[in-house]
Structures
1.
Amino acid sequence: MSNQFDFVSIKKKANVHYEGRSISHVIELEDGTKKTLGVILPSDKALIFKTHVPERIEIISGKCTVQIGDELEAKIYSSGESFNVPENSKFKITTDEVIDYVCHLE
């Protein structure tokens, strides 16, 4: 798996959520697929994100705990792992370290 995306368009304006604890940029690849590249900072509160399309979140670095939709059990994800969130759902993420991620909008 490559560690970079080639031939992309990048939205200049950042998506800033939760008072700057989550910051990302949207990129669009040559084939029209979109992704967000971002960082989530440590927080004592869980961050909740809603989805409109299916998303696959790939953890590039760091470790976090994620609860997807109405699932009762949260799971831990680390660098090199990913998790899927269905469309029109949500996920709750907590971390005590910096998370670097790619969100694949699928």
Note: The chain has a mean pLDDT of 96.
2.
Amino acid sequence: MASMTASNPDKPRITVEAPVLRVGAGTADYQGLDRFVDSLRKPRGLHMTLLHVGILDELVGDIAAWTKGRAEPGKVLPEVTSWLTELPVLQGFLGKSDKLVPLGGGRLMGLEVDVPQDVHDYQALLVQGLHVLLDELGLDNIDDFILGSPALGYRSPRWLPHIAVGRARSRHEPPMEISPVAIEFGDSRIRHREALPADS
């Protein structure tokens, strides 16, 4: 298999996400989670990732490596950027959570979120669209690429709706039941959209 990129922490990661507008009845409901996690994240930055695209230069490098250079970076980058900016917007929605679960190999804790079916459908549409884009760029074995690309960062083909909220107290924290909370999400958006190359 072709060698693919290692991550550069200094460059922004591009994701499609739904921002969290409110957890529970307000700040106190969210702050109460600090009983279960360390370094509780600020409410303003909370979001649900719908699709992780990663650092664009690294994704382009992964595609070039996979195609053995047939997909030229100079042509791939505008295609990926155009695809991202033309994605439909998912309207804001309500979810709920009654469980904290370990994430990222146990380094983080997050709220596992129950979301409406149309959110699952939208996320599946994003992956399907990514599949079509990669096919048009000349990739083969696209499922293997999606799971193997360090830039995309997939660990599993199954999407678990969640919100990362803070550091786990240990690497072996089990899932924890919490009092149910409603979660309000805003319209989907591209995180770090300003980092996308300008249209030529």
Note: Residues 8 and 102 are 24 Å apart (CA to CA).
3.
Amino acid sequence: MFKLNSLDDNELVQRFIKGDQESLETLILRHKNRVFSYILLIVKNQELAEDIFQETFIKVIRSLKRGKYIENGKFVSWVLRISHNLIIDHFRKLKLKGTVSNDSTEVDIFNSQRYSEATVEDQMVNDQILSEVKDLIKELPEDQQQVIYMRHYMGLSFKEIADQTGVSINTALGRMRYALINLRKLIEKKKLTLTMI
């Protein structure tokens, strides 16, 4: 009996595109733990992670059917990028609604000495700086954006980043180094002052 498990990701993708549904099931089973762990690590909420996981594979199926996947031996990285973009979209929508969930964090973000002592002006300046930094990050190449988000917004170690993105630790460190160099250049070019006065 022919075993789909013996095929690599690209062979399974090609079979699915030709109409073999089982090939897709094999792909999902093969990568579900890694993709789900990645989502849960960021959103820190089981239910939300499950929703985004389902949304990710719905998007994967649609993209495959439309021929939007280009084989480069990195199927799982492509899926992780789709899930990452869906997570960003989710948080963007939350930000637009002006809501922040305090249920999913271990630390009470509203009961912090840092916030209680800050004046309204300090908070406005801090918010402006954070907003400008996020805008600058968006101008970086995608792999550099990813390493900054994973390191500074998700608190992952470079080993975890390397594991999640399928690269070596040295590559992850190199991307961070270039990201910081490029951020400095952008700050100088735009003549920004990103410090509290």
Note: The chain has a mean pLDDT of 79.
